[in-house]
Amino acid sequence: MAKPNYSYEKRQRELAKKQKKEEKAREKAARKSGGGAEGTESGEGEAAADDAELTPQPPQGGAQ
């Protein structure tokens, strides 16, 4: 029987906690900078925007 890797699980929990804390800090900064309406959103738009930044996009303007 395989032995559970508790250190891996702990690291995953720590990373999730850190990510949640950073997200709260970003939302707080957005509210402080005058984006009060943004703070009421569910945050799904921000996650999609983060994913868009990480994935390379093909160059625009295919006309030669």
Automatic annotation (TrEMBL):
Compositional bias of kind Basic and acidic residues: 8-30
Residue ranges, compositional bias (Acidic residues): 41-53
The organism's place on the tree of life at top rank: Bacteria
Region feature (Disordered): 1-64
Record protein name field: Uncharacterized protein
Annotated organism of origin: Piscinibacter aquaticus
